[in-house]
Design goal:
The complex is a heterodimer of chains A (511) and B (159). Chain A has 511 residues and is α/β, with parallel strands linked by helices. Helix content of chain A is 41%, strand content 15%. Chain A has four domains: 98 residues, Glutaredoxin (3-Layer(aba) Sandwich), CATH 3.40.30.10; 210 residues, 3-Layer(aba) Sandwich (Rossmann fold); 87 residues, Ubiquitin-like (UB roll) (Roll), CATH 3.10.20.600; 84 residues, de novo design (two linked rop proteins) (Up-down Bundle), CATH 1.20.1440.230. Chain A contains 21 helices and 16 strands. Chain B is α+β, with helices and mostly antiparallel strands. Chain B folds into two domains: 57 residues, no CATH class; 82 residues, Glutaredoxin, CATH 3.40.30.10. Helix content of chain B is 47%, strand content 11%. A four-stranded mixed sheet of chain B has the order 2-1-3-4, with helices on one face. Chain B starts with 8 loop residues before the first helix and ends with a helix. Classes of the chains: A alpha/beta (511), B alpha+beta (159). Bound molecules: flavin mononucleotide, iron/sulfur cluster (SF4) and FE2/S2 (inorganic) cluster.
């Protein structure tokens, strides 16, 4: 029997993968072939979706982007034997775009059947947890610390330090909360991991839970991701049946379980204390820190809060050892980063590679420039609170410190490309508008300042009292930066000011 | 042809009872009610407050805070277009204009044939934008003509 892979990833499904899967199976049957269909995750070459793979004696051949009109011609050409076709890309592992990457966190995504226990174990799954169970809890935490793994949610805080704080805290109950709110525009890696390799996240959470002494984990997963919610819930059910979760994790006699909690459409609930409020069932308002969640988190108990990618990197750290992970990267940015190429880009998708790759390499080499074919004008890095960079300033190395020096931030690794038709004044206005819509309302500079910001930018664009309004805008930005409790209000000025400074002509000024 | 149950107090009480023992229950109870009925009926506020032993103000506060929760019956169809940056860069503004003119409403409104048009901020499909969620189904690489087709298809279902 021939195995055919058609991604069940929601991005692939959004461009017709379900129909392709049905047509392929029916078309193969009509030609007398019995095929086994696997709905894998996506390889992350999203411009090639729907991307069909055929396994011929252990070698996987890829074809894409496939439309339903192509299915017959693909079958007639003999793709079930790995034959050539205008949509063929040869052996998938050898596609340069993939071969140049270092897939660590995403090693299994797109490769395996996401819910297959056998696939998971055959591809190295559970090795990290098994090793962790042979170590003392402090040693597991020490290993994570030594790996240099930093939080992938945005702030880049060392995961091991957070874990150690929770480990050392005395409490009858502790928690692990996975932040799967992934609200940043231009980011989708959390989603793809949860859809394509959900057991990895559960394994990472279990390692975290057991090592710090927590018995319960929660995944706060945004409601905009219905497929990820379903897939992760299915994975949890399977993991309990297999004894990977529950009252006797892998026969160790130790307890850890995970529950998915669905978000309700609030961006600021991705901020960790707002997430805790929301998990406790209240309005998602940001809490002042201290107390830090590691000491007083969910229901007032010591809580590890980490992003999906942070937790999903942990099994690899434990399986291969801290030094293997630590050996990748540059400076204080260790390991790999899962970059997400998005927006107006010819080859968008997931590029996982060691820290230190340049933004230009990502946008121009991996990304091959814009999808429209027009020149790149601006690139926004790190989500809606991230700065815009000019096309001629993309030489910057992609690590936490180098980006900070360039006045930008890595955030969750999203890279959004714009061509030369973009109006940067509109982008600045949008940043303020987004902040106004999503502000939790706790502090005035954010709640009111952002609304005023929209009005002031509108007046600047209309050419009303330009100089006075530009000064007002600058004051507003300073006020928001200095007077906001969290990064929502505190960083919104970043994209606004970066646009103003670098594209004054879009605001009616002289370039 | 609504998939939702009509609101009754008995049914609502059954839903609330199922949620009551879970930690931090207010938000998830309101979400469960919306899943059952398509919206959260105003009578749910005192009911939830009583059953979960919290104040009405607290329940009301949660209900009004979250974008997802709604207090009037669900529409026949919903079109939610991503208007965040990555989709903007590939034409989400044009897509929204097309949807507005097809439906004869502005974003945030309900058409005369009860199709809701909403803006959302990122659907996690940012490399295949512009993206939209139509009756819960994610769509990518949408062009304005495709948006017209999508809306026509929704209408033929309703008619
Ligand atoms: C407005 C705002 C939104 C945020 N959204 C997210 C998010 O969607 N996902 C995430 O992991 N972290 C988000 N964060 C960062 C979290 O507060 C927190 O730093 C992170 O979850 C910690 O996990 P990490 O150390 O593994 O990165 C957000 C922060 C702010 C201020
Ligand atoms: S900065 Fe904005 S989002 Fe953050 S706490 Fe203040 S009001 Fe809430
Ligand atoms: S920005 Fe539109 S899907 Fe992410």
């Amino acid at each position: 029997m021939i195995t055919v892979y058609v991604p069940g990833d929601s991005a692939a499904r959004s461009v017709g993968a379900d129909t392709i899967a049905t047509h392929l199976v029916a078309g193969a049957a009509a030609r007398g072939h019995d095929v086994r269909l696997v709905r894998n995750g996506s390889r992350g070459m999203l411009w090639l979706e729907p991307f069909v793979e055929v396994d011929v004696n252990g070698t996987r051949f890829g074809y894409g982007p496939v439309t339903s009109d192509d299915v017959d011609s693909l079958l007639d050409a003999g793709i079930l034997e790995g034959a050539h076709h205008p949509l063929a890309h040869g052996t998938v592992d050898q596609i340069e775009w993939l071969a140049r990457q270092q897939r660590v966190t995403f090693a299994r995504v797109g490769v395996i059947d996401p819910l297959s226990v056998a696939d998971y174990e055959a591809h190295g799954g559970l090795a990290g947890l098994r090793r962790a169970l042979t170590l003392a809890d402090e040693d597991v935490v020490a290993e994570v610390l030594a790996s240099g793994l930093r939080g992938r949610g945005g702030a880049g805080f060392p995961a091991g330090i957070k874990w150690r704080t929770v480990l050392e805290a005395q409490s009858d109950q502790k928690y692990v909360c996975c932040n799967a709110d992934e609200g940043d525009s231009g980011t989708f890696a959390d989603r793809m991991l949860m859809e394509g390799d959900p057991f990895t996240l559960l394994e990472g959470m279990t390692i975290a839970g057991l090592s710090v002494g927590a018995t319960q984990g929660y995944v706060y997963l945004r409601s905009e991701y219905p497929d990820a919610i379903t897939r992760l819930n299915e994975a949890i059910t399977i993991a309990r049946t297999e004894g990977w979760l529950g009252n006797d994790v892998l026969g160790s006699g130790r307890v850890f379980d995970v529950e998915v909690r669905e978000g309700a459409g609030s961006y600021v609930c991705g901020e960790e204390t707002a997430m805790l409020e929301s998990l406790e069932g209240r309005r998602g308002m940001v809490r002042p820190k201290p107390p830090v969640p590691a000491l007083q988190g969910l229901f007032g108990k010591p809580t590890v809060i980490n992003n999906v990618l942070t937790l999903a990197s942990v099994p690899m750290v434990l399986a291969d050892g801290a030094s293997a992970y630590q050996s990748l990267g540059t400076g204080r940015s260790r390991g790999t980063q899962v970059f997400q190429l998005a927006g107006n880009i010819a080859r968008g998708g997931i590029v996982e590679t060691a820290f230190g790759v340049s933004l230009s390499e990502l946008v121009n080499d991996f990304g091959a420039g814009t999808r429209s074919g027009r020149p790149v004008r601006a690139v926004q890095v790190g989500g809606p609170l991230g700065a815009y960079l000019r096309a001629d300033a993309l030489d910057v190395a992609m690590d936490y410190e180098a980006l900070a020096d360039a006045g930008a931030m890595l955030g969750h690794g999203g890279i959004v490309v714009f061509d030369d038709t973009v109006d940067m004044a509109q982008q600045a206005r949008f940043a303020m508008e987004f902040c106004a819509v999503e502000s939790c309302g706790k502090c005035t500079p954010c709640r009111i300042g952002s609304r005023r910001g929209v009005e002031v930018i509108d007046r600047v664009i209309a050419g009303v009292d330009r100089e006075a309004n530009l000064m007002l805008l600058d004051d507003l930005c300073t006020l928001m930066t200095d007077g906001s409790l969290c990064a929502m209000g505190g960083l919104t000025p970043l994209p606004v000011r970066s646009a103003l400074r670098q594209w004054p002509e879009d605001f009616g000024g002289n370039s | 042809m609504s998939a939702f149950a009509p609101w009754t107090t008995e049914r609502a009480e059954a839903v609330v009872t199922q949620c009551a023992s879970r930690p931090g229950p207010v938000l998830l109870t309101l979400q469960a009610l919306q899943l059952e009925f398509g919206y959260v009926h105003p009578d749910a506020v005192p009911l939830v407050a009583r059953s979960l032993n919290v104040s009405r103000a607290e329940v009301h506060g949660v209900l009004t805070y979250y974008h997802d929760l709604r207090t009037s019956p669900a529409p026949a169809h919903s079109v939610r277009i991503c208007v965040a940056e990555a989709c903007q860069s590939v034409g989400s503004r044009d897509l929204m204009h097309r949807a507005e003119s097809e439906l004869g409403v502005s974003v945030g409104e309900r058409s005369s044939d009860t199709i809701d048009l909403e803006a959302v901020y990122c659907l996690g499909n940012c490399a295949l934008g512009p993206a939209a969620l139509v009756d819960g189904q994610l769509l990518g690489r949408l062009s304005p003509p495709q948006m017209s087709e999508v809306i026509a298809a929704l209408r033929s279902e309703t008619a």
